[in-house]
User: Fold this.
Amino acid sequence: MIKLTLKNTDLERRLREESEASGQDPETLAQEILSRGLSMQKFRRIREKMAPQAQKAGFADEDTILRAIS
Assistant:
C-alpha cells in the first residue's frame, strides 16, 4: 500500500470541494482520479510508441485507423 500526502494546498482544497460536491469521501475520489489519470498516461505512452509504426503502415492519423477498423 502506498500512502500519499497532499502538500499542495490548492490540490487539497480542490479535492475537498469535489468530494463535497460529489458526496464521495476524499480517499475514494482520489483513488478514482488517480486511476483514471494513470490509465490516460499509459494510453498516451502506448500511442506515442505506436504512432511511428502506424504511419509506416499507411495510417496518417487516428481517424484513418478508426475508419480502417470500423
Summary: The longest helix spans residues 26-56. The mean pLDDT is 92. DSSP finds three helices and no strands in the chain.
